[in-house]
Amino acid sequence: MLAFIGGLGIQEIGVILIVVLLLFGAKKLPEMARSLGHGIKEFRKSVREISEDVDETETKPSPKSS
Question: What is the pLDDT of residues 19-46, one digit of tens each?
């Protein structure tokens, strides 16, 4: 899933986290994480609904035309 992180070590990840903390501040990070979580939840819900619609459409017999 996160294959691009494979080349990063602990030190690099630590530096990235410190930079993000400095840029956004400690107050803003939990709020941003919460928003990201809600977005991911909504995306998964939409994907599930579309998948169910596709499955439902595939199982219904198509009307025969004469």
Answer: 988 988 888 888 988 999 999 999 999 9
pTM greater than the 0.85 cutoff: no
Answer for the pair 20, 29: CB distance below 8 angstroms, yes or no: yes
Q: Give the Cα separation of 38 and 46 in Å (integer).
A: 12
Domains of the chain, by residue range, sit at 26-56
C-alpha span between 52 and 58 (Å, rounded): 10
3-state SS of 30-53?
HHHHHHHHHHHHHHHHHHHHHHHH
